[in-house]
Amino acid sequence: MSATRGYPEDPSPNDWQDESELPVVRITAAQAALLRQQDPALSPWAVVGLQCVAGILVTLLAWGFSGEIAAMSAAYGAIAVIMPAALFARGIMSKFSSLNAATASFGFFLWEAVKIGASLLLIALAPRLIANLSWLAMLAGLFFTLKMYWLALLWRPRPKANLKA
Q: What predicted TM-score, i.e. pTM, was given to this entire model?
């Protein structure tokens, strides 16, 4: 980090023997706030919202091209992504998950496992819940809804330039 932004200079590589001895540089609350302003985080709820839009679009396309059964199957595929993603977002945004770095890491992996398990369960239940399930339409709903993670990364908030400490 450069001193021109209000951060301490990075130590030179000659200041330590190996990577296990890398120095830890503490920053102030003001510097942390500046970092958050310069590189804003993407809300998991924004991703869930984008997935909802994609699920609606793929459902409407399936209905327009193949009828009601395909639309229900595509919607179910989208729901098999959206509901677990919303559960994940709720879990990682909880107060417990933000207590410290250890609980945040544990919470992320725990809720990711819950999300994957819930998605697999919903997919396994699909033939029992949707009469005359169209597997192709359901997989299209799953696929296009899952791809919204990539689109959300492209649309994430841009860093703000020229912020002073």
A: 0.71
The count of residues in the chain is 165
Tell me what pLDDT residue 164 has. 53
Tokens of residue 132, six digits: 């005359």
Cα–Cα–Cα angle for 84, 89, 92, rounded to 5 degrees: 120
Burial grade of 46 (CB within 10 A; 0-12, 13-18, 19 or more):
middle
Helix ranges restricted to H, the chain = 29-38, 44-66, 68-92, 101-129, 135-146, 148-154
Q: Tell me 38's DSSP state.
A: H
Q: Exposure of 2 by Cβ count < 10 A (0-12 exposed, 13-18 middle, 19+ buried)?
A: exposed
Query: Tokens 């492209």, residue?
Result: 154
Q: What is the DSSP string of 103-129?
A: HHHHHHHHHHHHHHHHHHHHHHHHHHH
Neighbouring CB atoms inside 10 A of 72's CB total 22
The answer, yes or no, to whether residue 165 has pLDDT greater than 50, is no
Average pLDDT of the chain to the nearest whole number: 83
User: How far is it, in rounded angstroms, from Cα 46 to Cα 60?
Assistant: 21
